[in-house]
Amino acid sequence: MANANDTMRELAAEQNVPLIDLERQLEGREALHPDPIHLNEEGVAIKAEAVAELIADMITSRDEGKSAPARDSVNPTESTPTKESLP
Question: Could you tell me the residue range of the domain that residue 69 belongs to?
Answer without folding.
Answer: 2-85
